[in-house]
Amino acid sequence: MRTAVQIRPPGNGIRAKLLWGTPESVVGGRRGPVALFREGEVVAYIVTTSVPHLFIFRTLLVDDRHAAKVPGVLPHVRLLIDLSTAGRLRLMQRLFAYLVASGRNPSQLRDEFYFRLGTVLAGRLPESKVLLTLLQQSQGERPWT
Questions:
Q1: Residue 108: which of 42, 23, 55, 44 has the closest Cα?
Q2: Second label for 131, Cα 20 to 30 Å away, from 29, 34, 83, 114?
Q3: Phi and psi dihedrals of 52, rounded to 5?
Q4: Which residues pair with residue 8 across a beta bridge?
């Protein structure tokens, strides 16, 4: 199953663009191009009305009605991160640029990485907890055991 992501150019009130993702193909649609992704791909998608909103999600093998519904995306997806502040959006843009520059494919990172990253970005963990986790990961230990 392919996941369709609507790309909308500026000018019609809603703008939608890809921050990251390698579509299998791009086809024309009524409201602009539609990027088609294979299952298991990580996609970073920015939808802007009055405020930019970043969705980072993984495409699924089959449509799961219990999975997340993201505007402009069909079928449902596994939502990994959902941000709507300009500062955090800039951080994520820099993170994806760093991952690409260092030769890492964001689709090959585990979902747990994105869940933890979302928690850190939301500021729900004290800095000491973040530091401890990063240190444990650098030593090859599993911080959740």
A1: 42
A2: 83
A3: -70, 145
A4: 16
Task: Give the pair of three-digit tokens for residue 12.
Answer: 């019609």
The half-sphere exposure of 118 on its side-chain side, counting CA atoms within 13 A, is: 15
> Exposed, middle or buried, 55 (CB in 10 Å: 0-12/13-18/19+)?
buried
State both tokens at 142. Answer: 């599993």
Could you tell me which residue, 109 or 27, shows the higher pLDDT? Answer: 27
Question: Tokens standing for 31?
Answer: 């409201």
Q: Name the residue ranges covered by the structural domains of the chain.
A: 3-107, 110-145
Distances in whole angstroms, Cα of residue 139 to Cα of each of 110, 125, 136, 145: 18, 20, 5, 14
Please tell me the predicted confidence (pLDDT) of residue 82.
94
Among the listed residues 48, 52, 15, 20, the one whose alpha carbon sits nearest the alpha carbon of residue 32? 15
Residue whose structure tokens are 């869940």 = 115
- pLDDT tens digits along 106-123: 998 888 888 888 888 877
Q: Which of 40-44, 90-94, 115-119, 139-143 has the lowest mean pLDDT?
A: 139-143
